[in-house]
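Many introductory courses stop at the sequence. We go one step further.
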Amino acid sequence: MLIQSLIYPDFTTLDLIGALQPLAQIPGAKTEIVAREAGANPTDSGAAIMADATFATASTSPDVILVPGGGTPSIDVLEDEATMEFLARQGESAGWVVAVCTGSLLLGKAGLLKGYKAASHWAVIDTLDAFGATPVHERVVIDRNRCTGGGVTAGVDIGLTIAGQLAGQDMARVIELILEYNPAPPFGTGHPTIADAATLSMARAGTEAVMPVDRIRQIAAA
């Protein structure tokens, strides 16, 4: 079973690792990290992730193609023709097409979400319609073999969900326990629907700076 992840410079580390960690626990699973250039790729946390394959050497027809998001870098890569062509090609043959956070924008630009329900980070989810998708405001959304989700930490939920699809719910339950996934957020402000007004205002100001909705729609229309 091959879990293939597409990465690009300055993507969000947890988007990838949160989803990949549960998937990597599936018995027999192998992982492949793909980027335009092999070797160390920087992330937004300062940690580098090693890519062991390029677009030219990557395996074809993976069981899962996983795409992380990453604020402005994820929007920039929407205009990278080589990356979009690779993603479109892999998405056509992958068993599952999976994205975390703004990674769903990449799926959209690659033409992989037309006619599908999809989720994304709360700051940009309503731009998915520009790519022909139907936005669904849920933490994890499955439509046929597409699985998308909310921002950053939703990657863990996504990884466990797909683990259940690939290895069965009994195994996914075991993985969830082994990872001790038992979240207890200390502040209770993790979504606009539960955050106080002041916190939401500051968060919106921050997200608008790195995830401009107008630019996303312009790219979608190009």
